[in-house]
Specification:
The chain is mostly helical. It has 5 helices and no strands. The longest helix is centred in the middle third of the chain and has 33 residues. The chain is elongated and about 70 Å long.
Amino acid sequence: MAKGQTTVSDFAVAPRRSRSVEQAAIPADSASKLAELSTETRNADQPQEPALLGPETDQPANRLIAPTQEARRERATARALQREDSRVRLRDLKRARDRESKHYVNCPLDYDTKMRLQKASIENDVKMTLIMKAAIDQFLKDNGY
């Protein structure tokens, strides 16, 4: 591939989030009640752990679930840079595509020809511009151009 050329496969695509069937079926009010009940039953089944004393009381023990403010900031910065890079590449791809396709030719057609062209386009599920391009190309080939 030529240097600086961008294709659609260069863009990052986020994976879809799987939505739990249980979450979709339970309304918000009953979901919060269900969460309260499940924590109460979980707390009744498990022995209580002593509360942490000192400055770390506000932060949870598990760092994987709640990362530090610095880690969150680093991840947010990395994601923002990746989005910006993808946005720039997509913009460049659109500009390159527009540069290739913007050679318009105005062609006045009589009403009957336009209706025939429109009918052919609808019946064959092809754009009118493609039919016109193919017809012009065929004419040019037949006449040695």
